[in-house]
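Re: that backbone. Tokens:
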């Protein structure tokens, strides 16, 4: 299959990407629910400074993968190392400390409906850094709101925000702790094309401004092409392709072709 080029090309890897330094490393990871295998012995490295996109159909195990990375799910087999630590071997306190270095952008944004934007952003900060002054908290909130372009929403309630604004505030809430790793779960789900493009741009801005590494879970090919320094495709519990956007889809494999055609990016 030949992937036609448009005026939008694949993202170029950042200059500070370190392919000798894996911040996330999975080896032989397996996970099943009852008699249904979801991950079938997958290996994966995410390098420092890299945006890695994991593509796959709904139900392919993408969200299970990132829950295993942060220790929300335990694998049935294999090892998971994050920032040099074996996630399966550390205690609860060490796991909490590790998670504080990881920003998790949920598909639903996961804002607290009863808190305004300021309180939503303050909550993780004061919970993790109890000795901050009022000015330090205010400055941190103002900075992340400015970074996501939503300073004017500081006193609004989540119910007053658009879907795209909620996504941005959700990302801001993770950034306030200056994470080393960002995990994005379907960041453009439910958004119109223009807002999706804005979220894609924000993901790239976060990578540059905060020097983060990221795993981006999506089935949106526009998002994958815009944000991914490297792309892997998950199919029936195994990674079947990896590389740049063009490399992943330069194949006659019907599984890959069908996924590409379903997304209606371009005709091949």
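Recovered sequence:
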């Amino acid at each position: 299959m030949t992937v036609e080029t448009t005026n939008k090309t694949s993202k170029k890897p950042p200059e500070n990407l370190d392919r000798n330094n894996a911040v996330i490393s999975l080896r032989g990871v397996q996970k099943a629910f009852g008699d249904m295998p979801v991950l079938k012995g997958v290996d994966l490295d995410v390098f420092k400074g890299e945006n890695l996109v994991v593509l796959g159909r709904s139900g392919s195990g993408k969200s299970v993968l990132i829950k295993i990375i942060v220790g929300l799910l335990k694998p049935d087999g294999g090892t998971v190392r994050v920032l040099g630590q074996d996630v399966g071997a550390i205690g609860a306190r060490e796991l909490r400390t590790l998670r504080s270095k990881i920003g998790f952008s949920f598909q639903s944004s996961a804002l607290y409906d009863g808190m305004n934007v300021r309180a939503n952003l303050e909550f993780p900060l004061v919970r993790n850094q109890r000795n901050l002054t009022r000015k330090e908290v205010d400055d941190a909130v103002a900075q992340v709101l400015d970074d996501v372009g939503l300073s004017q929403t500081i006193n609004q309630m989540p119910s007053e925000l658009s879907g795209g604004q909620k996504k941005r505030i959700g990302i801001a809430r993770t950034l306030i702790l200056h994470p080393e790793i960002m995990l994005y779960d379907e960041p453009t789900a439910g958004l119109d094309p223009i807002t999706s493009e804005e979220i894609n741009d924000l993901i790239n801005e976060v990578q540059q401004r905060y020097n983060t590494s990221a795993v981006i879970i999506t089935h949106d090919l526009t998002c994958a092409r815009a944000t991914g320094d490297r792309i892997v495709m998950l199919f029936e519990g195994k990674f079947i392709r990896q590389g740049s956007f063009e490399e992943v889809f330069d194949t006659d494999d019907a599984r890959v072709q069908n996924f590409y055609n379903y997304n209606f990016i371009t005709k091949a």
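The chain has a mean pLDDT of 90. The radius of gyration is 19 Å.
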